[in-house]
């Protein structure tokens, strides 16, 4: 759509002109300036303050994931187009000479690297489930909070569509009732939190970009069962608002894959919610302007308490 393309370019140019983001040549990989990072850290702190009374366990993982966990997660069944695997050089000196000469001559060198035991994390919560492998959960289930970098191979000129971004995520594991009740509570809480910053946020039923011919059916099924919700805000387009927070109910997928059981002995269910940190920050700049010192009093009071 012409309008949304132009307004995504306009947002990109505005963010660059105000030194909020720093172009690096590759789409979706720009740097972040000091003011951008300050706003991001302040929103992150707000999320932590809202979560604090729930008493979540805090975990931090690197932006890489055990390849075996990744294979087990089923990500490649659904989204092969978004994944990024880490390859590295394991050759001898002869192979190294070949590598150097190929690069000097501008030739391909991908066959001179080998797949390693890690991939780039495609979702912030994936390392959590194997850490519960074989566990019987306490009666009230588990609640984990984390802040991780995520990779998605979808280069785009739209600044809200990044190849690498940060997610403040919360995972709930337990019985279906526990997990669904938690998800519904948070859906309301998440919308209220974003609206308290003066953002025109609203929840909607959503689906994932499943790959291939079968993907359409999977997406329809996901919508019909209301397994995915998003909180959206118009950032680059009114007709196609940007998802800034997503809620996924996995049913027993991870419980089954990693052998996690409830105290009653049933396979555990899980759900997660994640705030797309850069997207929330861009929604703030889009809604209130590029200079935070001119933002509305109420928004500033929430972020600069
Ligand atoms: Zn997740």
Précis, in short:
By secondary structure, the chain is of the alpha+beta class.
Can you list the strand order of the major beta sheet?
3-7-8-12-11-10-9
Order of helix and strand elements from N to C terminus: HEEHEEHHEHEHEEHEHEEHEHH
> What would you report as the Rg, rounded to the nearest angstrom?
21 Å
How can the largest sheet be summarized? 7 strands, mixed
Backbone structural class: alpha+beta
Q: Could you list the spans in which at least 5 consecutive residues all have pLDDT below 50?
A: none
Instruction: List ligands, each type once.
Output: zinc ion
- Please identify, by name, the CATH architecture: 2-Layer Sandwich
Q: Let me know the number of strands.
A: 12
Number of helices: 11
Mean pLDDT: 95
CATH superfamily: Bira Bifunctional Protein, Domain 2
User: What amount of the residues lies in strands?
Assistant: 15-25%
CATH class: Alpha Beta
Q: Name the overall outline.
A: globular
Distance between the termini: 40 Å
How many domain units? 1
Examine the coordinates and then state which fold CATH places here, giving the name of the CATH topology: BirA Bifunctional Protein, domain 2
